[in-house]
Write a structure and sequence with these properties.
mainly beta; 5-stranded mixed sheet; OB fold (Dihydrolipoamide Acetyltransferase, E2P); 3 helices
Length: about 160
């Protein structure tokens, strides 16, 4: 069970890692790297469809899609993480993610290269993120998955509009 954060609460890295323990993650590929989001934040997995353009939006916002009558912005995670751009193909998917209650239930589509699997971290040790890059601000921890390392994306941080500026 996740703890609800107050909107102004700031967590240090150890607290962020502690909150990840016991969760299952949907893993996905992005530019050859493995990422994961808490499975509870995933509303839907959709096949790629070109969104309707949104004038004057940041370059990483591709536009909006209609999700059962709700207008949902779509972010290209490659562009957001400043990696190389790729053509969209039949394995490209849009993860519709929902931020936590503390973040006012924001919903956004996130374009990723492909969905991999659901990962139960079991007894695996989640480690704090290391390094200094544009991506690290959105990563809450690292988890060994077989021979690979999965970066655990903090959906609340990713969907914070204040970070878009």
């Amino acid at each position: 069970m996740q703890t609800v954060m107050e909107p102004d609460e700031v967590l240090d890295i150890d607290d962020r890692v502690d909150r990840l323990q016991g969760s299952d993650y949907l893993s996905f590929e992005l530019d050859g790297e493995l990422y994961g989001v808490d499975i509870q934040t995933v509303e839907e997995i959709r096949v790629w469809e070109k969104p309707t353009l949104l004038p004057r939006s940041p370059a990483f916002i591709l536009g909006v899609i209609n999700l059962r009558g709700m207008i949902v912005p779509v972010m290209d995670l490659r562009l957001r993480f400043d990696t190389q751009q790729v053509d969209y193909h039949r394995e490209t998917v849009v993860l519709v993610l929902r931020a936590s209650e503390a973040a006012n239930h924001k919903i956004m589509g996130v374009v990723v290269d492909a969905v991999s699997d659901v990962v139960d971290h079991g007894e695996g040790q989640i480690m704090p993120p290391i390094g200094d890059s544009q991506v690290i601000a959105y990563v809450s921890g690292l988890l060994n998955v077989g021979e690979r390392v999965m970066s655990l994306v903090n959906v609340d941080e990713l969907l914070r509009i204040e970070r878009w500026i």
